[in-house]
Amino acid sequence: MAEKSAILYRMILPDHTCPFGVRAKQMLEDAGFQVDDRILSSRDEVEAFEDEQGVATTPQVFIDGERIGGSDDLERYLAA
Fold it and tell me: Can you say whether residue 65 is alpha, beta or left, with left for phi > 0 and alpha for psi between -120 and 50 degrees?
C-alpha cells in the first residue's frame, strides 16, 4: 500500500503557535499520514502564502496535490 502523505502549511511565530495548525498535524498523524510540515514563521510569510493560495487563513492542508483546506475542512475530509 502506498504511503499516505500530506503537506501542511501552518503558522508558528515567535510569540504565537496556531492551535489549528497543531490540531491539523495531529489529525493527519492519527490518520496515518506522513506530514510534510511547512512552517510559516513570520507574518510576511503567512501573508505571502495566503495571497499566493487565495486563502484567508492558515493552516492549509494539501493531499495528493489537492487543497483540502483548514483544520475543520480536514476533519470533514477524514470523516468521509
Answer: left
